C-alpha cells in the first residue's frame, strides 16, 4: 500500500521518500523541514497499531504535529472490508489513535488488508491460529481460513494518495 501511495504521489510530481519505520532510527527537525507532508500507515494487530510506529510517533510527536506539514494516517485491517467497517476502523483505529497521541491528521483512511492462512504463510503456528480465532469470531464466513485473503481495494488506495497530493 505504501509503495502504491508513493508511486501515485510521484506521478503528481512530488518528491517521495518511502521508509519502513523499522529502518528509521531518528527523524530530526532538519529532516522534517524537507517535507510538505508525511503519511504514516500501520497494519492493525490485535486491535493496535504496531509497536514500532507508536514508538516513532511518541518520539517525534512535536515534528509530526507541526501545522506546516500535512499529516496523513492510514491503517490496514480486517475490519475495513465494507463501507461500515471502514468507518468503524477509521474511528477506532485512526481517530481515537490520533487523539491519544495528540495528532490532528489532515487525511485519514482505513483499507482492507491481506490475511495469509495458507500453508506458505509467514506467520508462525501460534500467530496464525490466533488470527484464525479472531477472524472466525469477528468475521464469520468472510475468510478462507486455508488460503491467502486479499481485501485491498487499490482504487481506494490510489484515491487516498491523490487526495493527499492535492493537500500538499
Q: What would you note in describing this structure?
A:
With 168 residues, this protein is of the alpha/beta class. It has six helices and six strands; from the N terminus they run ααββαβαββαβα. The strands form two sheets. The chain has a four-stranded mixed beta sheet, sandwiched between helices. It has a two-stranded antiparallel ribbon with strand order 5-6. β1 and β2 form a beta hairpin. α1 crosses α6.
Q: Which structural traits does this protein have?
A:
Rossmann fold; 4-stranded mixed beta sheet; single chain; 168 residues; alpha/beta; two-stranded antiparallel sheet
Which helices and strands occur, and which strands form pairs?
Blueprint: H1 2-11, H2 29-33, E1 37-45, E2 48-49, H3 51-64, E3 70-76, H4 83-101, E4 107-111, E5 114-116, H5 125-138, E6 148-150, H6 154-167
Parallel strand pairs: 1-3, 3-4
Antiparallel strand pairs: 1-2, 5-6
Helix pairs in contact: 1-6
Quick synopsis:
The chain has 168 residues and is an alpha/beta fold. It has helices at 2-11, 29-33, 51-64, 83-101, 125-138, 154-167, and strands at 37-45, 48-49, 70-76, 107-111, 114-116, 148-150. The model has no long low-confidence stretch (mean pLDDT 89).
Q: Give the strand content.
A: 15-25%
Q: What structural class results from the helix and strand content?
A: alpha/beta
What name goes with the CATH superfamily of the largest domain?
A: Flavodoxin domain
Strand order of the largest sheet: 2-1-3-4
CATH topology of the largest domain: Rossmann fold
Largest sheet: 4 strands, mixed
The rounded Rg comes to 17 Å
- Helix count equals 6
Q: Percent range for helical residues?
A: 40-55%
Q: Enumerate the spans where pLDDT stays under 50 for 5 or more consecutive residues.
A: none
